[in-house]
Amino acid sequence: MQDNERISDSDELQRSLRQIVQLLDKQRLVEELVHRQDMPRHGLVETLVHKQHVAELQKLLDELDPADIAHLLEALPLEDRIRVWDLVKAERDGEILLEVSDAVRESLIAAMDTGELANAVGQLDTDEIADLAPDLPHEVIQDVFTRLSPEERDQLRAALSYPEDTVGALMDFDMVTIREDVTLEVVLRYLRRMDELPDHTDKLFVVDRLGVIQGELPLNRLLLHDPEVMVAAVMEDDIVSFEPDDDGREAAQAFERYDLISAPVTDANGKLVGRLTVDAVVDFIREESSAEVLSLSGLREEEDIFAPVWKSLKNRWTWLGVNLVTAFIASRVIGVFEGSIEKLAALAALMPIVAGIGGNSGNQTITLIVRALALGQISLANARQLFAKEIGIGMLNGVVWGSLVGLFAYFFYQSVSLGLVMTLAMILNLMLAALAGVFIPLAMFKLGRDPAAGASVLITAITDSGGFFIFLGLATLLLIKG
Amino acid sequence: MQDNERISDSDELQRSLRQIVQLLDKQRLVEELVHRQDMPRHGLVETLVHKQHVAELQKLLDELDPADIAHLLEALPLEDRIRVWDLVKAERDGEILLEVSDAVRESLIAAMDTGELANAVGQLDTDEIADLAPDLPHEVIQDVFTRLSPEERDQLRAALSYPEDTVGALMDFDMVTIREDVTLEVVLRYLRRMDELPDHTDKLFVVDRLGVIQGELPLNRLLLHDPEVMVAAVMEDDIVSFEPDDDGREAAQAFERYDLISAPVTDANGKLVGRLTVDAVVDFIREESSAEVLSLSGLREEEDIFAPVWKSLKNRWTWLGVNLVTAFIASRVIGVFEGSIEKLAALAALMPIVAGIGGNSGNQTITLIVRALALGQISLANARQLFAKEIGIGMLNGVVWGSLVGLFAYFFYQSVSLGLVMTLAMILNLMLAALAGVFIPLAMFKLGRDPAAGASVLITAITDSGGFFIFLGLATLLLIKG
Q1: B302 inside domain
Q2: Which of A215, A239, A271, B472 is most buried, taking the most CB atoms under 10 A from its CB?
Q3: Same-domain check for residues A111 and A148
C-alpha cells in the first residue's frame, strides 16, 4: 500500500525541511533576478535554472510519505507552503488534507479551486470526507456527493449528522463482518477473495442476519485455531462496543484502559453501524490534550503558527478581553486605597508580591484539577477531600512563603507591623487561591462547560483583586488607621 | 484472556465508584459503633455485618477489569484506596500496579510487604517489571531477579539500562519472528502450534539466521494470500523501525503519522531486539502531554490528587521558590519609583493593568510556542518569521488594548498625559511579552532543556518587572519630572 519512504526520525525530517527551504530560496532568487534585470534575452536561461529547481523539489516530494509532507507543510511559512502544495501530485492532495491540522488545512484549501478540491476529496472514504466537510465550500460537497454511490451517500449523511467529539464523528465504515455458523476455513476462504483488509483490522465482527452484533473474532484466534472449528466456538462474546452518540473522550479512555485496536459501533438495538479504530483515537487524544493546554491560557483553538496576524488576533482576543475587565476591577480595588498608598508608598511596592505568588499557586492548583477532571479522577464524592487538601496546602504555603516575604518587607522597610501584615495577607491570599483553584473548574464542569477555558485568566483575576484587597485592606486597618 | 466485564462508559464507572464508597462508609460506621460501644457481646453481630460488606465489596471488585480497578483506585482518597487495594485478589496486583499513575502506584506499593510485592511483580513480563522497577524496593527486585530465566534476566537488564523516554524503555520483548524462505502455509502451521499471539500482533517480523530484520509480514497478507506463496514474495521490506536509544517522542510521532500498531526495534546492525506497540505509545503520549500542561504552570510531576499535603508541597515548591525571587525583583523595581508613587498614587492603581495583561498575552504566546515545539513544527529555519509574527501581534494588541486602558485612565483620573503614558506602556510591554514568549522556550529548547518547565512563572516575571519598569519609568520621565 505504502510505497514511499517513511521517516521515523525527526532529524531526517528536519533535513528534508531544510532542503525544501533552500530550494525555495534559490527559486526565489532566480525569480528576483529575472524580475530585476527585466531582460527578455536572459529569460530563457533563468527559466531553465528555475525548472531544474522545480524538478528537484518535485522529486523530493514524490519520495515522501503523505503524512511526512503534511508535517513539513505545517512547518513552512505561508508563502513557501503554498508553493510546495502546488507541486504535490494531485492524487495525494486528499490524503494530505486529512493529515494536516485544521488551521493549516484552511490555508491549503484556500489555495485550491473548486475542481481541484472536488477531485482531491472524491478519492477519500466517506468517513474521511465527513472529517473534511466543515472546511469545504458548499459546491465542493455537492459535487462530491453526486459522485458517490447511494450506499456511500447514506454513510456520508450519517457521518455528517453526528456532533464533533462523538464516537459517530470518529468512526469509519470499513469493516469485515462474518456469521457465527460457519467454520474458520470458510472465513479464511472468504478473506482470501478480498484484495485487502481495511487498515487496523485486528478482529472481524460477527453479526446475525439482521446485522446485530453477536461477537468478535480476533485475527489471532482465526490464525491459531483449527480451521474446522466453528466461528461461534471461538469468538469473543464479551465485547466492548460503542454507540454513535457516545462521548469521544470516554471512548478514548476505554481504548486506553483496554488497549483496544478497533471496536464495533452499534445503534441502540445492537445493529452494527461502524467501527472505531485506534488511529482515530490517537488523533483525538492529541487534539483533546492540545485543546486543554491552549484553553488553559485562554486560546480558543490550535493556531497555524504562520497564520496572518489578524487571524491569530481573533483566536486570542476573547480571553484578553475578559482579562481587560478583570484588570480594571483590580485597578479599582487599588484605587479605593489610594489614600493609604499616598501615606505609605511601600504598600505599592509590596502588593504585587502578594498578588503574584497567589496567582502562580492558584494556577498550579487549577491545572491539577483540570487534569484530574479530564482523566475522570474527580467526582462529587471526593470533592470535599480535595478542597480540604488544597486549602491545607495553601495555608502551609502561606505560612512558609508568607514568613519569607514578611522578613523581606521588614528588611527593606524596617517595620515589624508591615512584615506581619505581609505574612497574614500571603496566608489569606494563598488560601483564596486554593479555594478558587478547586472551585472554578469544578463549577464549570458541573455546568457542563469546559473546565480549562480561560482558567488561568480567571484564577489570576481572583488572586490579583483578592490579593490587593486583602493586603491593602489589612494595611489600612492595622497600619494607617491603627 | 479477558473474562471480566469491561466498562466502556464513564457513568457506569462512576456508579461503581459510588457503590464502593457507600460500602466503605457502611463498614466504617460499623467499626465506629463497635469501637464506641466497646461492648464485647455486640461484637459478634457487627462482625457479621462487617463481613457481609466485605464480601459484597470483594464480589464487586472481582467482576471488574484490572484497568477499571486501577481507574477507581485513582479516584479514591488514600484511606479508602488502601482498604480496596487489600481486597483485590493478589494475582491481579501486578497488572493493576502497571495501570495506575506513578503517584498512586507509590501509595499502593507502600501498603504492601516485600513478599506480596515480589509475588505481584513476578507474574509480569520483563518489560513490565522494568517499568515498575524505579518504584520497587531493592530487595523486591533482587527477589524477582532470582526467579527469572537467564534469557529473561538479560531482557530485564537491557530494559533497565535504557533511560526513561527512550524507545528502549517503552519496548517489549513479545514478538513472533519467521524466516523469509518458507511458505505462508508453514507460517500458518507454526502459529497454530502456539497458544496465543502476543497482544497487538498485527505483523510478524521476518529475520535472517543472525536475527537481522529483513521485512515484516502483516497478518493481513498472511490471511489474504495463497498459502503456497513464499514469505519473501509478500513481505513488506520498506519498514519503519526504531533503535532503543531513539527518543520516545519521535517514535510516538512516527506512530501517529504512519498509523502504526507495532514496529520492530533493532540495534545498530539491524538485529531485532524488541518491539514497540501502540498501547505503550498511547500511554506515552498521555504522559507527555500531561507533563507539558503541568510543567507549564511550574509543577514537577503528576500528582496523586489525594497525596498527603507535604508530598504535594514538594511537587510545587521549586517554581514557587523561583516565583518568590522574581516577585522580590518586581517589588524592588517598584521600590525605585516610590517617590513618583507618593506624588501620584494613581500610578499604583494603574500599574497592575499593564503587568497583568502583558502576563496573560505572554502566556498565550509561550503556550503556542511550547505546543509547536512539542509537535516538531518549529525549526531554526522559521524562528525569524515566528518572532516577526508574534511581535506584530503584540504591537497590534498593544495599540488596541492600550487605547482602551488609556481611555480608562483618562476617564478615572482626568489626565490626557496619564492616558497616553498608559497606552505607550501597554504597547511596549505587550511587545516585550511577545519577544520573551518566543525567546524563552526556543532558548530552553536549544539548550536541550524542557521548554515548558516553569514557562508561566518565567514569562510572568518578565512582564511584571518589565511592565512596572516601563510604566513607572515613562510616568516619572513624562509626568513627574516633565
Answers
A1: no
A2: B472
A3: yes
Domain-embedded: residue A439: yes
* Closest Cα in chain A, distance from residue B36 (Å): 25
pLDDT at B11: 72
Measured distance CA(A118)–CA(A242) in Å, rounded: 32
B28 assigned to some structural domain: yes
Q: Which three three-digit cell numbers place residue A48?
A: 531553465
What is the average per-residue pLDDT within A291-312? 80
B346 touches chain A (CB under 8 A): yes
Which residues of A are less than 8 Å from B20 in CB distance?
none
Instruction: Specify whether A324 is located in the same domain as A444.
Output: yes
What is A305-329 written as a DSSP string? TT--HHHHHHHHHHHHHHHHHHHHH
Instruction: Give the residue with greater pLDDT, A309 vs A112.
Output: A112
Is B234 found in the same domain as B160?
no
Closest alpha carbon within chain B to A324: B357
Smallest Cβ–Cβ distance between B352 and the set A197, A330, A405 belongs to: A330
CATH number assigned to the domain comprising residue A217 = 3.10.580.10
Q: Is A378 on the interface with B (CB under 8 A)?
A: yes
- Partner residue opposite A457 with nearest CB, options B222, B303, B360: B360
Q: What b-and-e string marks burial along B153-192, b requiring 16 or more CB atoms within 10 Å of the CB? A: eebbebbbebeebbbbbbbbbbbbebbbeebbeebbeebe
Predicted local confidence at residue B45, as pLDDT: 59
pTM of the model: 0.85
CA distance A139 to chain B (A): 30
In the predicted model, is pLDDT for residue B155 greater than 50? yes
Task: Sort out which chain A residues have CB atoms less than 8 A from B250's CB and list them.
Answer: 8-10
* Residue B163 and residue B183 share a domain: no
CB contact under 8 Å between B316 and A367, yes or no, is no
Supply the Cα-derived Rg of chain A in whole angstroms.
30
* Residue B463 resides in a domain: yes
Judgement on whether residues B340 and B457 belong to the same structural domain of the protein: yes
**Are residues A349 and B356, on separate chains, in Cβ contact within 8 Å?**
no
B53 confidence band (pLDDT: 50, 70, 90):
confident
- Within 33-52 of A, beta carbons closer than 8 Å to B belong to none
Assess whether B283 and B321 both reside in one domain.
Answer: no
Where a domain ends, among B170, B187, B202?
B170
Distances (CA, A) of B446 to A419, B373, B443: 42, 11, 5
B380 and B411 together in one domain: yes
- A337: domain CATH number is 1.10.357.20
Say yes or no: A242 contacts chain B, CB-CB below 8 A.
yes
Optimal mutation site among A305, A311, A341, A379, interface B, most CBs of chain B within 10 A: A305
pLDDT at B167 over 70: yes
CB contact under 8 A, A353 and B312: no
For residue A205, the enclosing domain spans 177-296
